[in-house]
Each structure stands twice: as C-alpha cells, then as structure tokens.
C-alpha cells in the first residue's frame, strides 16, 4: 500500500476518533542498549562486536507528546534517542571499510552513533481501559561511523530520514494503576526493513506521575543507508519516568 493511501485512511479514521481533552505527556529515561550485527562500505562486512569491539551502554531517551480533541488534526509526539557508543579492538583479520584497509594486529578504535529523532503524527482510535493510537513516524538519523588507527581513519555521516508506520496500544489493569504498554514503528520496502518496538509495564499514580519498565529492540536491515549497508540489532531493558498534564 502506498504511503499516500495510508495517510488518507488515517485522516479518515481521525475524523471518527480523537482525544477527549487536551493532554501533554513528558518523559525521560535510560535504555541499556546492546549492539550486534554488521556494517559494510566496500567489499567486506565488518562485525561491530568481534571486529570493532563496540560496548553496551546506557542511552538517554526524551519524549513529549501533545493530544487534543480537534477532529482530523493528528496528535504529535517528539522523541529523541541518544544512541552512541565506542569500542577498541586488536584485529584478528584484515578488512576494508570505505577507502581504507585495516590490517591484522592493528589496534582500531571506533565511534558508532545512531542517535535519532522521531516525529510522530497519530490518531487516538480507542480511549478507555484499552487505548489504541495509529499513525506515521519519520525517524531522522543524525550520527556517524568512525573507524581509526594511529595511521588511518575512515568515517561516514548518517543523516537519512526513514518513514515508518506507527502504532501504540495500552491495556489497563483496573484499580491497580498498572498497564501494559506496547509501541512499534516499522516498514519494509525494496527488500529493506526497519522495526523499532518496545513493551513495558507501566505504573501511573493519581498525581499523574508514571514510570515504565520494559524492553526495546531496534532492527535494521538495509542497503545504502547514507551509503552504508547495515544489518544491525540493538536491544535491551529500559526505564522511563514521566508526567501527564
């Protein structure tokens, strides 16, 4: 289905359902992200664990969402995800990345930055003990990849924007303050795929404070992301705290 057809369907759905009141949701948290997979810029695949020695790291997450009762006009969620790590390794094999060949026994250091922003437009379809949001997410990357030794270095800038379908569901457990929250963005096109999904147990107080403990996974399998072929997975537990006004 074309994105224009999806957008029209969402707009029609938004005419039938919208939030009952104005609302603002603000949250911040950390994601303990573990990295696996390969990148390629040239003839050789480079494994980010065994070749580059990238380390797991805690990553900051910030988000704000605005909801309103105006029909047809979508709600808005903005999210920033830090996703930067580094590593060091003594190579057990040679590989070429870009225009540079890194040789056996070289000590390489690497910086790997997949930080990005999500721009999400969505409609609230259900709003009771089960709530459901559907929409579109444009994920804008602003990062880079750098591999270097004392003699050589190679780097790429990551600045692509990827359009994704978006959905979120929340299932309340009555009279407990607890709920199960599931959120996903994803798309497949021309053999490439991108999926960003998470599930969390959420606790919200009468004072409109909430906390979430969950698991998140990003998987990206694509050719020519800013000139790089990537087959990556990033996953781990996260903890968020937020306020609902």
Overall mean pLDDT stands at 91
Number of beta-strand segments: 17
Helix content: under 10%
Task: List the quaternary state of the chains.
Answer: single chain
**What structural category characterises the helix and strand content?**
mainly beta
Amino-to-carboxy terminus distance: 37 Å
Q: Please write the string of helix (H) and strand (E) elements.
A: HEEEEEEEEEEEEEEEEE
* CATH-assigned fold name: Lipocalin
Q: If strands are numbered along the chain, what order do they take across the biggest sheet?
A: 1-3-4-9-10-13-14-15-16-17
* Unreliable residue stretches: 1-17
Q: Which geometry do the CA atoms define?
A: elongated
Tally of separate helices: 1
- Provide the β-strand percentage band: over 45%
Instruction: Summarize the biggest pleated sheet.
Output: 10 strands, antiparallel, barrel
* Count of the separate structural domains: 1
The CATH architecture can be named as Beta Barrel
CATH first level: Mainly Beta
The Rg value, from CA coordinates, equals 20 Å
Can you put this structure into words, describing what you see?
The chain has a single domain (3-244), classed as Lipocalin, CATH 2.40.128. Helices cover 6% and strands 68% of the residues. The chain is built from one helix and 17 strands. The chain has a ten-stranded antiparallel barrel with strand order 1-3-4-9-10-13-14-15-16-17. It has a four-stranded antiparallel sheet with strand order 5-8-11-12, with no helix packed on it. The chain has a two-stranded antiparallel sheet with strand order 6-7. Strand 11 (143-148) and strand 12 form a beta hairpin. The protein starts with a helix and ends with a strand. The model is unreliable at 1-17 (pLDDT under 50).
């Amino acid at each position: 289905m074309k994105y224009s057809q999806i957008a029209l369907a969402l707009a029609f759905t938004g005419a039938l359902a919208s939030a009952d009141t104005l609302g603002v949701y603000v949250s911040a948290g950390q994601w303990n992200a573990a990295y696996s997979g390969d990148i390629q810029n040239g003839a050789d695949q480079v494994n980010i664990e065994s070749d580059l020695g990238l380390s797991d790291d805690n990553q900051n997450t910030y988000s704000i969402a605005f909801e309103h009762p105006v029909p047809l006009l979508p709600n808005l969620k903005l999210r920033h995800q830090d996703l930067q790590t580094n590593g060091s390794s003594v190579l057990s094999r040679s590989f070429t990345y870009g225009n540079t060949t890194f040789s056996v026994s070289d000590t390489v250091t690497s910086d790997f930055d997949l930080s990005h922003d999500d721009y999400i437009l969505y409609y609230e379809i259900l709003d009771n003990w089960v709530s459901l949001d559907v929409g579109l997410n444009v994920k804008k990357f602003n990062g880079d990849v750098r591999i270097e030794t004392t003699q050589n270095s190679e780097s790429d800038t990551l600045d692509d924007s990827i359009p994704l379908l978006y959905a979120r569901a929340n299932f309340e457990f009555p009279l407990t303050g607890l709920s199960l929250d599931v959120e996903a963005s994803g798309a497949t096109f021309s053999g490439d795929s991108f999926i960003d999904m998470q599930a969390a147990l959420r606790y919200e107080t009468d004072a409109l404070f909430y906390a979430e403990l969950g698991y998140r996974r990003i998987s990206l399998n694509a050719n020519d992301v800013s000139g790089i072929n990537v087959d990556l997975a990033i996953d781990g537990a996260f903890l968020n705290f937020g306020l609902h006004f």
